[in-house]
UniProtKB/TrEMBL annotation:
SMART domains: Fn3_like (SM01217). Gene3D superfamilies: Glycoside hydrolase family 3 C-terminal domain, Glycoside hydrolase, family 3, N-terminal domain, Immunoglobulins. Keywords: Carbohydrate metabolism, Glycosidase, Hydrolase. It comes from Demequina muriae. Residues 602-672 form the Fibronectin type III-like domain. It holds the Pfam family Glyco_hydro_3_C. This is Glycoside hydrolase family 3 C-terminal domain-containing protein.
Length: 811
């Protein structure tokens, strides 16, 4: 706790607390207020019947509803009700289609409403700092503007159905390694310009009902205890008037969280924190008014959920699931991105097609962890292709590899080659097996399974018409990219991934996607790779602003496929752009003509380049975009509006956004490297920015990083002595700790289903959850069996015995 109680405001004046809720709070005894600011169980809030307050459910997740009726977990372990599995966020971001994402949001909201869920825990919009981030499939983009706009569209859609959305994970939560307690070291300007801007846009454009704080620390402070993030920035600066909840089991100091602006703890910690909150109130460390505000926000949300529910009729599940499946198929096609094509695509729906790859039968369609959806149905490419060809052609299928492991036998490869012989075209479906991508752990490399690469090599050597389709939640290395005649990625396309890819292959749907992240040639080239998931307890964002295309375009290191890239089956002509307006308030109007013979869409992207900045800036940054759908021969205008923030930088010295006077170039592009027109403009402005030295390369040296941070680069927190954030894995460094960790792991393993068929990724996620579990979680999850006082004693004993045995061994 670091702030005096005197800073508190009463609930009646606090943003996000209604008069009615403030009235209820005033009538509650302290113990009731403490009870209400923590969940009742894994997914539900507490009720207060005497005051007319019902409990409500909050549940995952970003691309489909994951409502568990039985045992609750956040690892994708136990069953959930059937729900439409939409494409994951990595695919949704690739649509660049705001109205379409509003439709998806509305469908998610409808299913949640039908299942009586009050708040859906999504969208996730953390920046893809590094392509190996384990949860990148759950996030929208490497760019904050695209992330923010797409997230806002989803939120508007969800909330249009009277269900709350939840922006997560706030903030700077960009890796899974050591995820419950890693400390993100990031400078203020980078935090603002890269990691907070998406949240800011989504808050301002969609007024989400809730925000979820991240597990990690930021510059030494737990995200859920940062008053700067949760109150000063989120509420006072951006105008957020909803509720902030913890991520599941993220609480580190509940009283400090309440003071910071963290309203609801989830899931229930069975009263584990109550005595600590009482003590903080008694000592004056926590003001009663802060507790009242948190409680007022929980009550406000409960009343809102109840009022929305009372005012709407339930949806019809049969038509709802049919309609949503059709929408999922349309969205998956709209996300599908054509990376290369020599004209082989679209395919003629006749002749003999060799379809190779087990993903044709067992689609790879979503990632592991808390977002895992129990799909209402599952389309396969194999069945869809056979039905599409009917009597006009033949599909010769060979699995080529094992869908779950990605391994292949020589016989499987030989069978695939035999299938290709005599085929008019080969469609090879490869990608990342499910176990490669999950919440809970990062990837250790970007390679496809060796067998998939072997198939690509063997088939492209054997046949001169090979189309490779990819299923994956994040970029992969593609040293083979020049070999096939076309490459198309469906990302992770959800339950209709199998049918949507066939729609695109035959041109029944266009490949509507454009990359929402850069695909590097090799991961070693990108600056964040030097400080990513490679040290316990800390990660240093030494690349600063140079994430994704901001790095590639500024430092002249071409990506294999750049941000914004995606080919079309038709062609577009971009006319002369017009820029109207004054000062920083400008409208860019770009005429676009579909010059081909098919309907299609393109995404007009507007990047801003500052020609004479005081501060070092990325060569260009996306400041607006619009997806234009056009019939053959038709012309339409892409209209993009710019405002002050389109030109501004965050001046850390004065803690303000500033747009300097000078010359700016507006670059109109179809990707970050395919700029088709430019326009210059001059701004006049009184804004003055304090100069700051640029780094010599994209990776700051110790000295440069210290200058960016404005202090010495902090040392990572040592693993010993143990404390609340120590993980069960850390304990293994001492003798007694090892014994204790062993006993704990045994107890936990017993609690895990013994199902031999448990999928690899679920087992891997669970294992990672267990080893990364902080000690404080033991008290929170013990259902009252282990108090924090006992945990304190336990930690003291573990530390004392380790110290004395260390001393003894030194003697
Ligand atoms: C995840 C959240 C999720 C929550 C509930 C956490 O582990 O980080 O994204 O909403 O569990 O399942």
């Amino acid at each position: 706790m670091n702030a005096p109680a005197a800073s508190a405001v009463s609930p009646a004046q606090a943003p996000g607390v209604t008069v009615q809720a403030a009235g209820i709070v005033a009538a509650l005894p302290r113990s009731e207020k403490i009870r209400l600011v923590s969940g009742a169980d894994f997914w539900n809030t507490e009720a207060a019947e005497a005051h007319g307050l019902s409990a409500f459910m909050l549940t995952d997740g970003p691309h489909g509803l994951r409502k568990q009726n039985g045992t609750g977990d956040h690892a994708g372990l136990h069953d959930s009700v059937p729900a439409t599995c939409f494409p994951t966020a990595s695919a949704l971001g690739s649509t660049w289609d705001v109205p379409l994402l509003e439709e998806v949001g509305a469908a998610l909201g409808r299913e949640s409403r039908y299942e009586e869920v009050g708040v859906l825990l999504g969208p996730g919009l953390n920046i893809k700092r590094h392509p190996a981030g384990g949860r990148n499939f759950e996030y929208l983009s490497e760019d904050p503007l695209l992330s923010g706009r797409m997230a806002a569209a989803l939120v508007r859609g969800i909330q249009s159905e009277g269900v709350g959305a939840c922006l997560k994970h706030y903030a700077a939560n960009n890796q899974e390694s050591d995820r419950m307690r890693v400390d993100t070291i990031v400078d203020e300007r980078t935090l603002r310009e890269i990691y907070l801007t998406g949240f800011e846009i989504a808050v301002r454009e969609s007024q989400p009902w809730t925000v979820m704080c991240a597990y990690n620390l930021i510059n030494g402070e737990h995200a859920g205890e940062s008053r700067m993030l949760l109150t000063d920035v989120l509420r006072d600066e951006w105008g957020f008037d909803g509720l902030v909840m913890t991520d599941w089991i993220a609480t580190h100091d509940r009283a400090a969280g309440i003071h910071a602006g963290l309203d609801l703890e989830m899931p229930s910690s069975s009263g584990a924190w109550d005595a600590r909150i009482e003590a903080a109130l008694e000592s004056g460390e926590l003001a009663e008014a802060d507790l009242d505000v948190a409680c007022g926000r929980v009550i406000t949300l409960a009343l809102k959920v109840a009022a929305e529910r009372a005012s709407r009729l339930p949806a019809d599940p049969v038509t709802m699931h049919d309609d949503h499946h059709a929408l999922a198929r349309r969205v998956a096609a709209a996300a599908t991105t054509l990376l290369t094509n020599d004209g082989t695509l679209p395919l003629a729906p006749r002749g003999r097609i060799a379809l190779v790859g087990a993903f044709a039968e067992t689609p790879r369609h979503q990632g592991g962890g808390s977002s895992l959806v129990n799909s209402t149905r599952m389309d396969t490419a194999l069945a869809t292709m056979r039905a599409r060809l009917g009597g006009a052609g033949e599909v010769v299928y060979a699995p080529g590899y094992d869908a779950a492991t990605g391994d292949a036998t020589d016989a499987q490869i030989a069978h695939a080659l035999a299938a290709a012989d005599g085929a008019d075209v080969v469609v090879l479906m490869v990608g990342l097996p499910t176990s490669f991508e999950s919440e809970g752990y990062d990837r250790s490399h970007l390679d496809l399974p060796a067998s998939h690469e072997r198939l690509i090599q063997a088939l492209t050597a054997r046949h001169d018409r090979v189309v490779v389709t990819l299923s994956h939640g994040a970029p992969v290395h593609m040293p083979w990219a020049d070999a096939p005649q076309a490459i198309v990625t469906g990302h992770l396309g959800g339950q209709a991934a199998g049918s949507a890819i066939v729609d695109v292959l035959f041109g029944d749907a266009e490949p509507g996607g454009r990359l929402a992240e850069s695909y590097p040639v090799h991961v070693r080239e990108i600056p964040s790779d030097h400080h990513f998931a490679n040290a316990p307890t800390q990660v240093q964002y030494r690349e600063g602003l140079y994430v994704g295309y901001r790095f590639h375009d500024t430092f002249g290191v071409p990506a294999r496929f750049p941000f914004g890239h995606g080919l079309s089956y038709t062609s577009f002509e971009i006319g002369e752009p017009k820029v109207t307006g004054r000062g920083t308030s400008r409208t860019v109007t770009v005429p676009v003509t579909n010059t081909g013979d098919r309907a299609g869409s393109t995404v007009v992207q507007v990047y801003v380049h500052d020609r004479e900045s005081t501060l070092h800036r990325p060569a260009q940054e996306l400041k607006g975009f619009v997806k234009v759908h056009l019939e053959p021969g038709a012309t339409g205008d892409a209209v993009v509006r710019l405002d002050e923030r389109s030109f501004a930088v965050y001046d850390a010295a004065s803690a303000a956004w500033k747009a300097e006077a000078g010359e700016y170039e507006l670059r109109i592009g179809l990707s970050s490297t395919r700029i088709v027109a430019t326009k210059s403009l001059r701004l006049t402005s009184d804004d003055v920015i304090a100069p700051a030295p640029a780094t010599a390369s994209a990776i700051a040296t110790d000295k440069e990083f210290a200058a960016m941070l404005g202090r010495l680069v902090p040392e990572p927190r040592p693993l010993f002595p143990f404390h609340y954030d120590s993980t069960i894995d850390d304990l293994k460094t001492t003798w007694l700790g090892r014994r204790f960790a062993g006993a704990l792991s045994g107890i936990m393993a017993k609690a895990m289903p013994t199902d031999a068929d448990m999928p690899d990724e679920v087992r891997a996620t669970m294992t990672s959850f267990l080893v990364n579990m902080p000690l404080r979680a033991l008290a929170m999850m013990s259902e009252g069996r282990l108090s924090f006082a006992s945990l304190d004693r336990l930690i003291r004993v573990l530390n004392a015995t380790a110290l004395s045995s260390r001393r003894a061994s030194r003697r």
